[in-house]
Design a protein that fits this description.
This protein has 318 residues and is an alpha+beta fold. It contains ten helices and seven strands.
Length: 318
């Protein structure tokens, strides 16, 4: 789908004009949005707007990092929008000049829809291509916060529920959250670097004229980075804590088995000796042989239990 907004000299908003009318002298600036375009619609980038082939190629090949390229008469920005369900980045491409802004996204963009609605509601006097670029970036960054806050709340809930779930279940959930945090960081950190670069380049008037606003976006990205890093540290601490709990439980189990085995080793030896079928074993014909052997084994077991208790072996079960 391709939609367009055109602002006339008398501050009227015209929508969905034919392409040839967009360059009319009566048009001050316009915004064309390519939302999940078909192959035929995508060809308009070269046939109508004559953008550089490398920029057009970048629109169809997902990039690992947001970036800014300077072409003759316009700038090309690659931005990343965070998918709230999968925490995978969706790409939003922007072609910007003083007279137009063209946005291109292969998936639905909440930021583009939000700013589009805002322009239609507030009118032409409040906006320009430069301000739309700012609003798009600002909305993208603002949309990073809800999923991160949601993950942070979930980590706090896991800490509160740790006594009601098995350690393995908790560790699996913590690892899932940690993976989402890593995916979110791969989106946020490059966006932070891009905004920092934009603020440092003096020749981009559309940034310098709104430097205070872009500084605010950069501050938000710094805060987001801190949230991601602190939550990653929290997941590491929780993981180490649960691994320590599992290790202590394993040590307790091994201690129990060790105590039981140690007690039964001499008892098994006595039972083994008197289980041998030799004819000349005098105790086999003794009237009190059996109760004496059982008494001896009981005494040995009690003595060993007493020794273990004195050495503090039973403290591990407390």
């Amino acid at each position: 789908m391709i939609r367009s907004i055109a602002i006339t000299r008398d501050k009227k908003i015209l929508t969905d004009l034919p392409y040839q009318e967009l360059n009319s002298p009566d048009i001050v600036w316009y915004w064309v949005d390519f939302s999940m375009p078909t192959e035929a619609e995508s060809e308009k980038l070269s046939e109508v707007f004559h953008f550089h082939p490398l920029a057009i190629e970048d629109c169809f090949h997902f990039l690992q990092r947001p970036k800014l390229d300077e072409y003759d008469g316009y700038q090309f920005l690659v931005l990343h929008e965070l998918n709230h369900d999968t925490f995978v980045s969706d790409e939003l491409d922007i072609f910007h000049s003083e007279r137009y802004i063209v946005t291109f996204h292969l998936t639905e963009s909440m930021a583009a829809d939000h700013v589009w609605k805002r322009v239609m509601e507030e009118g032409a006097t409040e906006h320009s291509p430069s301000k739309i670029v700012y609003h798009l970036i600002d909305k993208l960054v603002d949309d990073y916060f809800p999923p991160l806050y949601k993950m942070e709340d979930r980590l706090n809930e896991i800490e509160d529920e740790e006594s009601h779930k098995s350690p393995q279940t908790v560790i699996n959930e913590v690892f899932d959250i940690r993976s989402d945090l890593l995916r979110a960081r791969r989106t946020i950190a490059p966006m932070r670097d891009l905004i920092y670069r934009l603020l440092g380049i003096q020749k981009f008037d559309f940034v310098q004229k709104q430097k205070a606003y872009f500084n605010d976006i950069y501050d938000h990205l710094l805060k987001l980075t801190e949230i991601v890093d602190s939550n990653r540290e929290l997941t590491s601490d929780m993981r180490d804590s649960y691994e320590s709990i599992n290790s202590n439980r394993m040590n307790s189990i091994m201690m129990t088995l060790t105590i039981v085995s140690t007690i039964f080793i001499p008892l098994t030896f006595i039972a083994g000796v008197y289980g041998m079928n030799f004819a000349n074993m005098p105790e086999l014909r003794w009237e009190y042989g059996y109760p004496a052997a059982m008494f001896l084994m009981g005494v040995i077991a009690l003595v060993m239990l007493w020794r273990f208790k004195r050495k503090g072996w039973f403290n591990i079960f407390k």
